[in-house]
């Protein structure tokens, strides 16, 4: 049996209501858990870019890509292994301000992890960190010891090393 | 949306006019050539119905007795005509009652445009009376769907709806229109949709793959063609026949592919799959090249995939790229429209005959005839068989009727034994297996093809799921022939209970009403047959009656459908008894 591996899916779509439902239904129907999902504008005007992380066998991954591309409003979908993309995610920590001054170790952790302080007030400060999932997990573990008031992390976003020829495809349509 | 959709250039004669959203809906339907639509009125769609009243001389609205009946009728209409079926319903329950038909059309690739009314856009999300999120509900079972909350979007969205429903691999589209939009006035003009930039409905087959396919076909010693509905949907019947004859390859069909090649054609070797013919099932696991055309290797066709055609090289002609390698790995995928691909392929094919190989099909047919077919068609025991009823229909219709079957034992028998002289003659719920499909679907089929004999063959179970549509038959005076094969059981489930659940007949026995009285209640001529001696004359009388006719045939209670590929078994382990 082929093993499950993490894959990052990039989908270029029209920006229409309801597409989230349509895309997520493809995974739900096959009982596939979405590890993370992100939708944003892309490099092309009025085109959305989705980044979805799932763990699947490559065989199933290919079939899922087929099902995604079949949707009328999907322009193109790709899947990538981790070594084929540059990827990041980002997170926010809300921590008691007193800790920043009382626990010298926290300042070291912030420095070493390349995290940024977004805001500080009397009660709390907010720390932002972008990076690989494992870096964020590490930072989380380190800060957890001191107490975290709130924590949130984003889905993965990624750009591929190889070109994804969406603009060419769209130009071909308008000509 | 303007920049992403290409619409037909406005003609010089089309002038802008201020009309209501509901009138715009009607004008869009007329512009798409719609003549007949099926539906059921209700609060949130009333403005459109009001316009239907104004336009009744141009658009024939057929009032069903339930929205499910309306959508199955539209499916029957689409399946026999190749046109887009149109359904209209109100919000809430009206819309949810369409869902089964939408799912059926999705899995059987039937082009439909469903229009539903929706509550006022200001009430969306407020749990208003008869509000339901039909766009959300129908998403997984539609090819595309959309909610309109601005009247000026109506022409473009409906143009897109018809284009998407019909192009490429067809499917159902649902358009939900809020009630306020139906009243809103705007400057109307209509342009047909010609393309959408994110949607490539008909991939062009790769010439290299075509040549590779031809080389493999030409070198094959034991090739087998399995064709599906793709041949019918792409209107490839003529080129397909030429291809079969030139290559001399035995050709078998899936249930939805039936009738694309006449039953009487010598190279038509029958049906594949769970209750298909013995020869093509067994020889699927002996052929050296399997040529699949416009079919999707459904599990009812393949049985256990681990033992399906493992020895064969597979060529898959398919319009939907997502179907290639989905269930069966294709050695040579040819992605494109069946008609276009076969036209490209034909010049490369060598004229061949595969006499010895073909003889294998004949030999296996002889075994099947002896063990199964003879008993089904020429029974010597007392009880009537479903097969002999189909045989009588063949006789009286001379194989020219369109057979609309429901789901279950009678469906398998109807598909196995019906004679089909012409294409689009086998209308049945294949993928979804929707009981209750046949009666309403036959209404739509007969209305789309009034010149043809349309015979609905239904079991006593499925008949009672949409029996209310007798009201539609009566009101519309549809000269439809309805045959109920009554075994007082949910026969297929009972068969499985007998074979796999030690005859524990849990909830499959039916105490049935007087079906003849019910038909007569709707003023439909009706008769009940219990004896073999009455069968011939009764079927004849039915076929010769001008108006609608209902015939109940009481068949043996515990008849089984064979051959049968048991669930989980290989197609070559098909059982004859």
TrEMBL record, chain A:
Record-linked Pfam families: ACT_AHAS_ss, ALS_ss_C
Pathway involvement? Amino-acid biosynthesis; L-isoleucine biosynthesis; L-isoleucine from 2-oxobutanoate: step 1/4; Amino-acid biosynthesis; L-valine biosynthesis; L-valine from pyruvate: step 1/4
* UniProt GO molecular function: acetolactate synthase activity
The ACT domain extends over 8-88
Give the EC number. 2.2.1.6
Q: Which reaction does it catalyse?
A: 2 pyruvate + H(+) = (2S)-2-acetolactate + CO2
Q: Which Gene3D superfamilies match?
A: 3.30.70.260, ACT-like. Chain A, domain 2
Instruction: From the UniProt annotation, give the residues forming the signal peptide.
Output: none
Q: Which PROSITE patterns match?
A: ACT
Which portions of this protein are annotated as coiled-coil regions?
none
Q: What class of enzyme is it?
A: transferase
What keywords sit in the KW lines? Amino-acid biosynthesis, Branched-chain amino acid biosynthesis, Transferase
Q: Which NCBIfam families match?
A: acolac_sm
Name the family the entry cites: Belongs to the acetolactate synthase small subunit family.
Subunit info?
A: Dimer of large and small chains.
Q: What does this protein do?
A: Catalyzes the conversion of 2 pyruvate molecules into acetolactate in the first common step of the biosynthetic pathway of the branched-amino acids such as leucine, isoleucine, and valine.
Protein known as: Acetolactate synthase small subunit
Annotated source species: Psychroflexus longus
Taxonomic placement? Bacteria, Pseudomonadati, Bacteroidota, Flavobacteriia, Flavobacteriales
Automatic annotation (TrEMBL), chain B:
Q: Which PROSITE patterns would you find in this protein's record?
A: TPP_ENZYMES
Which positions fall inside the Thiamine pyrophosphate enzyme central domain? 210-345
Q: Which reaction does it catalyse?
A: 2 pyruvate + H(+) = (2S)-2-acetolactate + CO2
The protein's UniProt keywords, in alphabetical order, are: Amino-acid biosynthesis, Branched-chain amino acid biosynthesis, Magnesium, Metal-binding, Thiamine pyrophosphate, Transferase
Database matches in InterPro entries: Acetolactate_synth_lsu, AHAS_TPP, DHS-like_NAD/FAD-binding_dom, THDP-binding, Thiamin_PyroP_enz_cen_dom, Thiamin_PyroP_enz_TPP-bd_dom, TPP-bd_CS, TPP_enz
Checking CDD domains in the record gives: TPP_AHAS, TPP_PYR_POX_like
Superkingdom of source: Bacteria
This entry's comment on the bound cofactor is:
Binds 1 thiamine pyrophosphate per subunit. Binds 1 Mg(2+) ion per subunit.
Q: In which pathway does it act?
A: Amino-acid biosynthesis; L-valine biosynthesis; L-valine from pyruvate: step 1/4; Amino-acid biosynthesis; L-isoleucine biosynthesis; L-isoleucine from 2-oxobutanoate: step 1/4
Thiamine pyrophosphate enzyme N-terminal TPP-binding domain segment(s): 20-135
Asked whether the keyword Membrane is assigned, the reply is no
Instruction: Cite the Thiamine pyrophosphate enzyme TPP-binding domain residue spans from the record.
Output: 406-553
Return one GO MF term.
acetolactate synthase activity
Task: Identify the EC number(s).
Answer: 2.2.1.6
Cofactor dependency = thiamine diphosphate; Mg(2+)
Which EC class is this protein assigned?
A: transferase
| Family recorded in the similarity comment | Belongs to the TPP enzyme family.
Q: What is this protein called?
A: Acetolactate synthase
The UniProt gene name for this protein comes to: ilvB
């Amino acid at each position: 049996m082929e093993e499950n591996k993490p894959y990052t899916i990039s989908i270029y779509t029209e920006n229409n209501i309801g597409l989230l439902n349509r895309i997520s239904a493809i995974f739900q129907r096959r009982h596939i858990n979405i590890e993370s999902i992100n939708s944003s504008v892309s490099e092309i005007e009025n085109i959305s870019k989705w980044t979805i992380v799932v763990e699947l066998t490559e065989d199933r991954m290919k079939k899922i890509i087929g099902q995604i591309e079949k949707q009328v409003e999907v322009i193109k979908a790709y899947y990538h292994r981790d070594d084929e993309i540059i990827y990041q995610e980002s997170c926010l920590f809300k921590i008691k301000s007193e800790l920043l001054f009382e626990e010298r170790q926290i300042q070291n952790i912030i420095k070493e992890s390349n995290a940024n302080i977004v805001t500080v007030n009397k009660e709390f400060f907010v720390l932002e960190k972008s990076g690989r999932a494992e870096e964020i997990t590490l930072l989380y573990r380190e800060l957890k010891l001191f107490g975290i008031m709130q924590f949130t992390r984003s889905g993965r976003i990624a750009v591929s090393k190889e070109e994804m020829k969406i603009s060419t495809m769209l130009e071909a349509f308008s000509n | 949306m303007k920049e992403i959709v290409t619409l037909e250039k406005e003609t010089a004669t089309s002038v802008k006019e201020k009309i209501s959203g509901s009138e715009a809906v009607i004008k869009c339907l007329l512009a798409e050539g719609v003549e007949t639509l099926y539906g059921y009125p209700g609060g949130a769609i009333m403005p459109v119905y009001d316009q239907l009243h104004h336009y009744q001389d141009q658009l024939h609205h057929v009032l069903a007795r339930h929205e499910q009946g309306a959508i199955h009728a539209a499916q029957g209409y689409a399946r026999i005509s190749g046109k887009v079926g149109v359904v209209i319903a109100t919000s809430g329950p009206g819309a949810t009652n369409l869902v089964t038909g939408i799912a059926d059309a999705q899995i059987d690739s039937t082009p439909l445009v469903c229009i539903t009314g929706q509550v006022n856009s200001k009430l969306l999300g407020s749990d208003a009376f008869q509000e339901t999120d039909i766009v959300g509900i129908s998403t997984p079972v539609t090819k595309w769907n959309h909610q309109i909350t601005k009247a000026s979007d109506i022409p473009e969205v409906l143009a897109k709806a018809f284009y998407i429903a019909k192009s490429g691999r067809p499917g159902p589209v649902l358009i939900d229109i809020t009630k306020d939009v139906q009243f809103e006035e705007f400057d109307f003009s209509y342009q047909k949709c010609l393309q959408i930039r994110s949607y490539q409905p008909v991939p062009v087959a790769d010439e290299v793959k075509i040549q590779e396919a031809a080389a493999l076909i030409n070198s094959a010693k034991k090739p087998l063609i399995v064709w599906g509905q793709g041949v019918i949907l792409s209107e490839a019947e003529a080129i397909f026949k030429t291809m079969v004859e030139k290559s001399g390859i035995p050709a078998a069909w899936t249930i939805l592919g039936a009738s694309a090649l006449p039953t009487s054609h010598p190279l038509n070797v029958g049906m594949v799959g769970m209750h298909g013919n013995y020869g093509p099932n067994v020889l699927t696991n002996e052929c050296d090249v399997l040529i699949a055309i416009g079919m999707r290797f459904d599990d009812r066709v393949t049985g256990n995939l681990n033992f399906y055609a493992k020895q064969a090289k597979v060529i898959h002609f398919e319009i939907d790229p997502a179907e290639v390698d989905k269930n069966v790995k294709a050695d040579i995928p040819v992605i494109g429209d069946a008609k276009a691909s076969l036209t490209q392929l034909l010049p490369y094919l060598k004229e061949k005959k595969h006499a010895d190989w073909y003889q294998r099909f004949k030999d296996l047919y002889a075994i099947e005839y002896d063990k199964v077919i003879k008993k089904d068609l020429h029974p010597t025991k007392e009880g009537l068989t479903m097969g002999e009823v189909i045989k009588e229909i063949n006789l009286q219709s001379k194989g020219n009727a369109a057979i609309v079957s429901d789901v279950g034992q009678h469906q398998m028998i109807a598909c196995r034994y019906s004679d089909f002289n012409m294409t689009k003659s086998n209308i049945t719920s294949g993928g979804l297996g929707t009981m209750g499909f046949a009666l309403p679907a036959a209404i739509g089929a007969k209305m789309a093809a009034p010149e043809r004999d349309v015979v609905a063959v239904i079991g006593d179970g499925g008949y009672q799921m949409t029996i209310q549509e007798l009201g539609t038959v009566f009101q519309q005076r549809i000269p439809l022939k309805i045959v109920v094969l009554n075994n007082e059981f949910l026969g297929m489930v009972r068969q499985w209970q007998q074979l796999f659940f030690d005859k524990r007949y849990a909830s499959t026995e039916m105490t049935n009403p007087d079906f003849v009285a019910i038909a007569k209640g709707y003023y439909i001529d009706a008769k009940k047959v219990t004896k073999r001696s009455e069968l011939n004359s009764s079927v004849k009388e039915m076929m010769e009656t001008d108006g609608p006719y209902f015939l109940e045939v009481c068949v043996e209670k515990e008849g089984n459908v064979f051959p049968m590929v048991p669930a989980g078994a290989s197609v070559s382990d098909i059982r004859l008894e």
